Amino acid sequence: MGRGIALASIQSGHAAFVYDAFPEALGKAKAFIDSQIDKSVSKGLFSQEQAAKLKDSCMYLESLDEHVQQADIIIEAIIESSDAKEALFTMIEQAGLREGTILATNTSSLSVNVLCKQRKYPSSFIGLHFFNPAHIMKLVEIVKTPSTDHSVLDTALNYCISLNKVPVIAKDVPGFIVNRVARNYYNEAMRIAMEQAASIEQIDTIMKSAGFKMGPFELMDLIGNDINLEVTKSVFAQYFNDPRFTPSLMQQDYVNAGLYGKKSGSGFYDYE
Q1: Domains of the chain, with CATH numbers?
Q2: CB–CB of 234/196 below 8 Å?
Q3: Confidence of residue 132 (pLDDT cuts 50, 70, 90)
Q4: Is 67 a residue of the active site?
Q5: Which of 87, 135, 139 minimizes the C-alpha distance to 108?
Q6: What pTM value is reported for the model?
Q7: Candidate list 9, 129, 135, 187, residue with the active-site label
């Protein structure tokens, strides 16, 4: 998600810093962004000179340090864990976060209000939930807290519009808008498969024939079954174990087996 947001940003004229605690992930992010720019050149969308400028406008950091102080917007896009996000936000603040810098979370299910509670500058904290792949998908859910300054909301809206995205202001409810609706798309599909009423391939084909761009199993493989399961568990818990949002044992089995989807080479489908 982070690399997709960075790519969307530099393609829209912004400069971007990409930070990851793991050098291997950082290298993969650079390779992905460079390859996407090169593809655009091959399609005639950018010249070689424009491509070189785009690549130069994205820096890859193994340490935050003084770069935090240079940023106007910092978007966290790490694993769906409150503890991990809290630790990262604290590290960003200790690295010299400026009072006017917007600190945003890309969480898809955690409460933005809860994540905001311990922030050094709560008035500059906001939710910016992009969708995967972030450089292609148009929708961005913007989730403000009672502490979010109105000017921060305006800046977040303008930033998303500058990326040619469609921002939608959502309330801070579990799953916001899209992930609350999507739980049923995934969970019911897995119930049908577990009951052997239809195969995985049939379910995906039927849903695409009804107008969906991807079937539920294809989409879960793209997102990552591990991530999708964690979001489902989070929404289920936040709705006080409402049976509608019960996680699927089928998906848990796939995650236990390391079948995460495209990123692992195999999930509901084999990508190797």
Answers
A1: 2-170 (3.40.50.720), 178-264 (1.10.1040.50)
A2: no
A3: confident
A4: no
A5: 139
A6: 0.91
A7: 129
